[in-house]
Design goal:
Helix content: 55-70%
Largest sheet: 2 strands, antiparallel
Number of strands: 4
Shape: globular
Radius of gyration: 23 Å
Number of helices: 16
Structural class: mainly alpha
Length: about 400
């Protein structure tokens, strides 16, 4: 009974913290300059947090080493873009192929306007995740028989094949070939405008935070359920898990499909962030970025993946940007400061972090565990002081 009360209290505290964060983002967005680099970092960080959490669900909690995340993001991005490009813009977007094979737009099917936009975008993101999940189920039938490095190589190969297929000219009327898909609703589409078209209330940063928070919350609920405990049992010892009656094939496939679903949703959100969907964006290096975020945050920690996502994006896109600019002090040119030096320093920082935090920033702990540990320490010190008095 006491444990149940503590669990409920922890849930309410977590929900309160998420609500406070969303309110803070909304306030910052409507009080600061919209062109600030901070909002670019927050938007991309929210997308990467979702994708990193989905990869952690597979690699950290189930013990399956997959490198196909960029491929599932590509599927999600293209599904979202194809289903939401306005009918009036399809001819100009697909001009090289004489128009699009898909002649409808989900926001328009839902009646257009603000409500149509919201329902259409949500439906498109859900369908993006479903397409990724279905493809994951199909390739999981043969691929999930493999283990460790072999599984990673197979999923990496899948991601490259998907990228090549989506650039195939024969699929041009659907995917637009190697060209980018544009003109679909983005995060900025949710800004509230007056009759003159002027933005009166910005929601372009709030929306990705809200979507990522809901998706990550669902993953946390899954991890804390009986299915999540089965995933962890498979990670620790497959033989023992099977002896306890856990269906290994079923639960591995389930984890793979769920992870791919959220990666697909993340891909759709990435397209909204980038204002376009193009296959060449979803390269192997993107998968490595996501994997690096998971390792830095802590394998088996959703909180760690979220924190590491924002730190990674901020460091690579913002904080170290000055290192790419040639600087003079009088007539003296500061050595090394030139285009590309930022990534050299960033790589060194990553190496130092990995060396000193071998289990990642959070290890396998969540923010709630850290808060409880800190609370016990503080209460213990208080009791010691009282005992001394």
């Amino acid at each position: 009974m006491l444990q149940e009360k503590k669990s409920k209290r922890g849930t309410w505290i977590a929900l309160g913290c998420v609500a406070a964060l969303l309110i803070l983002v909304m306030v910052l967005e409507n009080t600061m300059q919209p062109t600030s680099m901070l909002f670019t970092v927050l938007k991309k960080g929210a997308v990467y947090a979702l994708v990193a959490a989905s990869l952690n669900l597979l690699n950290g909690f189930t013990g399956l080493f997959s490198l196909g995340q960029a491929g599932f993001m590509l599927l999600g991005a293209y599904t979202y873009a194809i289903l939401t490009i306005p009918s009036a813009d399809r001819e100009s977007v697909y001009y090289l192929y004489g128009g699009s094979a898909v002649n409808f737009s989900l926001p328009e099917l839902f009646g257009g306007g603000t409500l149509g936009l919201i329902l259409g975008v949500l439906a498109a993101l859900i369908l993006a995740g479903c397409v990724a999940a279905v493809v994951a189920w199909l390739i999981g039938l043969p691929v999930l028989r493999l283990k460790s490095d072999y599984l990673a190589i197979a999923t990496l190969g899948f991601a490259e094949i998907i990228r090549a297929i989506f650039q195939w000219d024969a699929l041009g009327p659907v995917t637009n070939g190697a060209n980018a898909l544009k003109n679909f609703p983005t995060f900025s589409s949710f800004n509230i405008e007056n009759a003159n078209g002027e933005v009166v209330f910005r929601l372009s940063t709030f929306v990705p935070f809200l979507l990522a928070a809901v998706c990550i919350g669902i993953m946390v609920l899954l991890i804390n359920s009986t299915y999540g405990r089965a995933f962890k049992a498979i990670r620790e010892d497959e033989v023992a898990a099977e002896a306890m009656g856990i269906n290994l094939a079923k639960h591995k496939r389930m984890a793979f499909c769920i992870s791919s679903f959220f990666a697909g949703v993340g891909g759709g959100m990435f397209a909204m962030f980038a204002n376009q969907a193009q296959a060449k964006t979803f390269t192997t290096s993107m998968t490595y970025e996501i994997l690096l975020i998971v390792v830095i945050g802590g394998i088996g920690s959703i909180s760690g993946s979220c924190i590491a996502s924002f730190l990674y994006v901020a460091a690579s896109e913002w904080w170290l940007r000055f290192l790419d600019t040639e600087t003079y002090i009088g007539a003296f040119k500061v050595p090394f400061l030139r285009t590309g030096f930022r990534m050299v320093v960033f790589s060194i920082i990553i190496m130092v972090v990995v060396l000193f935090f071998r289990r990642g920033l959070m290890g396998d702990r969540e923010l709630g565990d850290v808060a409880r540990s800190l609370g016990r320490r503080l209460s213990g010190k208080g009791k010691k002081k009282e005992a001394v008095k």
